[in-house]
Amino acid sequence: MPELNSPLAVVGTVAIDAVKTPFGARDRVFGGSASYFSYAASFFTPVSLIAVVGQDFPEEYRKILKEHPIDLSHLEVINGKTFSWKGEYGTDLNTAHTLDTQLNVLLDFKPKLMFKTLPEYIFLANVDPLIQADVLDQLEKPKLKFVACDTMNFWIANKRKEVLEVLARVDAVVLNDGEARQLTGEPNLIRAGQKIKELGPGYVIIKKGEHGVLLFYESHFCALPAYPLEEVYDPTGAGDTFAGGLMGHLASTGDLSFENMKKAIATASILASFTVEDFGLEALRRIQRSDIDQRLALFRKISSF
Amino acid sequence: MPELNSPLAVVGTVAIDAVKTPFGARDRVFGGSASYFSYAASFFTPVSLIAVVGQDFPEEYRKILKEHPIDLSHLEVINGKTFSWKGEYGTDLNTAHTLDTQLNVLLDFKPKLMFKTLPEYIFLANVDPLIQADVLDQLEKPKLKFVACDTMNFWIANKRKEVLEVLARVDAVVLNDGEARQLTGEPNLIRAGQKIKELGPGYVIIKKGEHGVLLFYESHFCALPAYPLEEVYDPTGAGDTFAGGLMGHLASTGDLSFENMKKAIATASILASFTVEDFGLEALRRIQRSDIDQRLALFRKISSF
Q1: What is the rounded CA–CA span in Å between residue A56 and residue A34?
Q2: Helix, strand, coil abundance in chain A, percent, nearest 5
């Protein structure tokens, strides 16, 4: 398979999930932070997926990724089973309760990057901060334009030092309200956002699920509501999809101004609004770029005064 | 005192509160739904305050109301003590815990309306729905342009039938997310808003505190974030201030289009953002109309993309 010339790369997980929501349960759902991210980002730009799977990784899932311009040269296959996550949501749909995590091949994940053309936009999706740092070590060149990262409550609690070291090296961090509060010990999200900026990332993006998103940058600020949905079917992957939309928009426009960053978080919100309307990547697989643009135009209309 | 020619009237409570927040405690704070409402609305238009107080009602509080064009002809003074409420907020500041309620003169509140010029905009602030209905009976004329109401968890739980009867008679209802869920049994706020529309009010406005506000009208929808605040000192009165800003804007512009309603909820959010920055009416007393306009312009900037 020839390598795509991708300006954007993501390191994260590719997973086989089992998900239960008030609306139904699915046993084998194609998931993982890097899967959602790359499928979303690739509506806008080719993207390289850096991840590891086991020998059990289904060919049908690989085919799903190939529906979009997603470069799989760095999707490593090693001995063992693919990472799997099992989770459940209550009626509020805001918090995932993890029932089981099988790291499997993730335990041996050591990305070896051999890009012919180095990506200039990097997203460090939710994996061990040591892996995030390792990828940065391999790609950090003067040429790098924009690096963003995600993290999760587990790493903040158990590898805080390593999380902080990654934060000091990135241009942006994308995290949810609970993680922002956990990281700073600050219940007020406006103050939490300011404090996270001081940890290193110029841009701080706090996702609040159904309540929208906050963006902090120097003395600038932006708050957007969420796109209104009557049916949230499965929130799994919403955050990774958001990040994919964000980075896809930035990499395809090449514009890192604050004004364009506002458009990027709006686009990101729209992508996430599709993902939660079905299990796994199903809703994203059904849409075209024009569906995104249409929903984005409506979003602008309903959130302006 | 000559009656002001007020296009807008509010019926509600005038109270002496005791409030404790993580930032401090105050024993005698001038409060009540009609006080906050009328002080906020009167930045935009004269407003008639329909309420009852006891003989202990301090002259200094009356003077505060007179700082603005608030008509007090219908502020009745009767034998007994003024309504008082004592409440406390935890660190999340979203939920008030009522420690004590002394209805006092509210138990005998039977508004007798004798307007020379009838108001065309009416707000039924949070009081017993039977009093709200009584005021509507007295004012409901073909001339009435716009009636909105508020309510609270206590009335929804204990006088549900009476609340529903009021809802069937108003043009708009303003309530918070918890009340919207309680009223409809619907956890999803978008669906809750749709369901409340079916109860009668054309316009449904759901306040989400720090997460902003949702507006429903026919097939139209609007979502706005909250104005970002690093310091929320005391949330008491935020909802009543919001309603005052909303109705004040509508009554002063006379424009009931959906586009102007969006401006009204933005204005309402800005008024509320001032109130929570201090105890009672203190923050509102410090500002001018120009401060509101300035914050509103910034709000538009930070919430558009």
Answers
A1: 18
A2: 40, 25, 35
pTM of the model: 0.93
Domains and CATH numbers, chain B: 8-302 (3.40.1190.20)
pLDDT per position as a tens digit, A195-246: 999 999 999 999 999 999 999 999 999 999 999 999 888 999 999 999 999 9
Residue type (1 letter), A96: A
Residue of B nearest to A195 (CA): B230
CA distance B218 to A89: 32
User: CA of A80, closest CA in chain B: separation in Å?
Assistant: 41
What number of other Cβ atoms are within 10 A of residue B249's Cβ?
Answer: 25
Q: What values do phi and psi take at B204, rounded to 5?
A: -120, 125
Is it the case that residue B94 has pLDDT exceeding 80? Answer: no
Which has the closest alpha carbon to B248: B98, B148, B139, B104? Answer: B148
Confidence of residue B18 (pLDDT cuts 50, 70, 90): very high
Strands B24-31 and B15-21: antiparallel
Query: Could you report how far apart the first and last alpha carbons of chain A are, in Å?
Result: 50
Q: Which residues of B touch A211 (CB under 8 A)?
A: 208, 211-212
CB B75 within 8 A of CB B55: no
Enumerate chain A positions whose Cβ falls within 8 A of a Cβ in B. 91-92, 187-191, 194, 208, 210-212, 214, 221-226, 228-232, 262-263, 265-266, 300, 302-305
Which residues from A are below 8 Å from B195, CB to CB? none
The answer to whether B228 contacts A190, with C-beta atoms less than 8 Å apart, is yes
Find residue B25's DSSP bridge partners. B20
The radius of gyration computed from the CA coordinates of chain A, to the nearest angstrom, equals 18
Contact status, residue B61 vs residue B30, Cβ threshold 8 Å: yes
Q: Identify the CA nearest to B174 among candidates B113, B228, B86, B241.
A: B241
If you count them, how many residues does chain B have?
Answer: 305
Q: Model confidence over B126-171: pLDDT tens digits?
A: 999 999 999 999 987 777 999 999 999 999 999 999 999 999 999 9
Predicted pLDDT of residue A152? 93
Q: With contact defined as beta carbons under 8 Å apart, do A163 and A151 qualify?
A: yes
State ipTM. Answer: 0.90
A30: exposed, middle or buried (Cβ count in 10 Å: 0-12, 13-18, 19+): buried
CA-based nearest residue to A148, from A11, A273, A270 = A11
Q: Residue A101: name the closest of A162, A49, A153 by CA.
A: A153
* Yes or no, beta carbons of A303 and B223 under 8 Å apart: yes
Residue B123 DSSP SS3? strand
B301 three-state secondary structure: helix
Inter-chain residue contact B303 with A303, CB threshold 8 Å: yes
Neighbours of A66 (CB within 10 A): 12
